[in-house]
Amino acid sequence: MTVDLSCKHTAIPLLARCLESLPNLHTLEIVRASGPVTSPLKGALRRVKLPQIKTLILPPVAHPLLRSCRNVEDIVCVVRYGIISSEEFLGSLEFNRDSKVKRLAIPLVWWINPSRK
Fold first, then answer.
1. Model-level pTM?
2. Which range of residues forms the domain containing residue 57?
3. pLDDT tens digits for 46-64?
């Protein structure tokens, strides 16, 4: 399934329920996400479990999906615009540390935020 998250943020909870209702969905690709979608996505997926997802292709802002996809085997992070916040993305990925990830393709940018010590 290919999803464009440049829709209104009110549609994100509907998307979460839709994904839960598709037991044979094994591949999910988020092709675009515009605006601040991380927080609405995190809220909508808080109690959603998507164990059927084996392949996840997503931009950095869609990283909350990693928390719901505990059985993911193939993760590809696609950076089309801007840079990725490795700290947030890896934080979500940590939820899958017991999973059977076979392939992880993430272009990371490591930087130190001068306001944090």
1. 0.75
2. 2-105
3. 999 999 999 999 888 888 8
**In this structure, is residue 71 part of a structural domain?**
yes
Measured CA to CA, the distance from residue 58 to residue 70 in angstroms comes to 15
- Give all strands of the β-sheet with 55-58 in edge-to-edge order: 2-4, 27-32, 55-58, 74-77, 103-105
Residue in the block written with tokens 């464009």:
4
* Residue 54 placed within a domain: yes
Q: CA of 33: how far to CAs of 27, 37, 38, 55, in Å?
A: 17, 7, 9, 18
Residue 46 located in a structural domain? yes
Q: What's the one-letter identity of residue 94?
A: E
Closest CA to 71 of 101, 36, 110: 101
12 domain residue, yes or no = yes
| Distance between start and end Cα atoms, the chain | 41
